[in-house]
Amino acid sequence: MQVFWHRSDLRLHDNRGLAAAADADDGAVVPVFVFDDDVLEHGSDRRVAFMLDALDALRDAYRERGSDLLIRRGDPSSVLPDVAHERGADAVHWNADYSGLAQERDEAVADALSADGVESHQHHDAVHHEPGDIRTNAGDPYQVYTYFWKKWQEREKAAPFDAPDGDALAAVEGDALPDVADLGFEPPEIDLPDAGHDAAVDRLDAFCDGDVFRYDEAREHPAMDATSHTGQDFSFGTLGVREAYARTVAAMEEADHEDERESVAEFQSQLAWREFYTQVLYFNPEVVTENYSEYENPIAWRDDPEEIRAWKRGETGYPIVDAGMRQLKAEGYVHNRVRMIVASFLTKDLLTDWRVGYRHFREHLVDHDTANDNGGWQWAASTGTDAQPYFRVFNPQTQGEKYDPDAEYVRAYVPELEGVPADAIHDWPALTPEERAEHAPDYPDPVVDHGERREDAIAAFEDARGDSE
User: Fold this and answer.
1) Which is nearest to 445 in space by CA: 318, 257, 322, 337?
2) What is the pLDDT of residues 136-190, one digit of tens each?
3) Would you tell me which of 52, 211, 243, 467 could form a disulfide with 226, CB atoms 3.0–4.6 Å apart?
4) Please, is 46 exposed, middle or buried when counting C-beta atoms within 10 Å of its C-beta (0-12, 13-18, 19+)?
């Protein structure tokens, strides 16, 4: 008998660890999920609710095969040895997570199982190439994505793993799932994406049948909505990386011309970005709370409470920024280009510590992923690996003009500007108070002057670098 411990891999299809457990020679697989309070401490209403929906879909998939999902709550290093003994299991399998918390937890579980005479087997499932497989010629982990991407492309990718059939699964009787209140959270106030493997594949297939072929250009324009919307599926593992990559290979074969092939390749590069940031987190677990790149002096963050509140509420007076922050609140999702814009505005225009934004996004994003989100925030703040230079400060007006020229995206999330011409929306910070009152009296004035704050931010980073000493 084998136990398989589900974590961020809530699917049967293309699950490396589950497939390995099913292929073992010691009997059927007992699937289990453990609600770990140390992990729940970092949860949010939205993500916990989505996770419960995904667990419900996973349980149904097991029941269709004559099995079920055991549900436990507690410290996995105590729970899993108990489950193994209860079921007479010889080994416990799981797929690796890569944060510092996960590495410590997994080591404790392995030690506890070993002390009880139970084998443990950890598998690399969430990435094509486990951390450390792709290194520089000097043998170091990459700090620059471009070079990582080149080698990532060249490496052979494993085929998706088949889901186990009923014969490989134990005929166990599962347990009821808790609700969000049982776990200490509130029901989310937004509509969540459909959860589970089938829903994830439907999203990916719809994308690969259409928008993937215009992704290279359209992905930057939020009103076009030409992204895959599979972030939460990768984060919770309702979609496997090999299955996703195989679908992009099929799309590449279906492409009619070079522009379409370049668009598919650009989407593949986004899959590689996730692995790059996973490797950064694995080798530098402290980046969750600390700057990846330290400066000679501390960065003099302003962290003005009123400015932070305006940013969180989407009331900065910069339309593209406010649209993004309101989309986050209303949907638990933000278009990727807009994520960069709002992050740059917070860390440079408002000179606010990136950790403030990271925590806010962790609370509100359904698709929050520690490695990916931390990497993105530190990139915007010029503190991360391969980060934008400190002197590169997004101008929110020109960003809006370039990527939302008709202000279609802005109007969708900022109703106060619904009848305002696009030129006036993009020029909002430059309009006189009288012009703004005439166009949209209920929409706020700019909280800061971008030109002035850009210079302030550059000066602050130069001081941190020691350039002025």
Assistant:
1) 318
2) 999 999 999 999 999 999 999 999 999 999 999 999 999 899 999 999 999 999 9
3) 211
4) buried
pLDDT tens track for 381-421: 999 998 778 888 999 999 999 999 999 999 999 999 999 99
How does DSSP classify residue 348?
Answer: I
Residue 55 buriedness (CB in 10 A; 0-12 / 13-18 / 19+): buried
Site of tokens 């937890």: 105
Burial class from Cβ neighbours inside 10 Å (0-12, 13-18, 19+) for residue 189 reads exposed
| pTM of the predicted model as reported, rounded to 2 decimal places | 0.95
Name beta bridge partners: 335.
Answer: none
Quick count: other Cβ atoms within 10 Å of Cβ 282? 21
User: What are the backbone dihedrals phi and psi of residue 136, each rounded to the nearest 5 degrees, phi first?
Assistant: -70, 170
**Residue 112: which pLDDT band, with cuts at 50, 70 and 90?**
very high
Question: Which pair of structure tokens corresponds to residue 225?
Answer: 């909505």
Query: 266, 156, 158, 170: which is closest to 218 by C-alpha?
Result: 266
The answer to whether 341 and 388 are in contact (CB under 8 A) is no
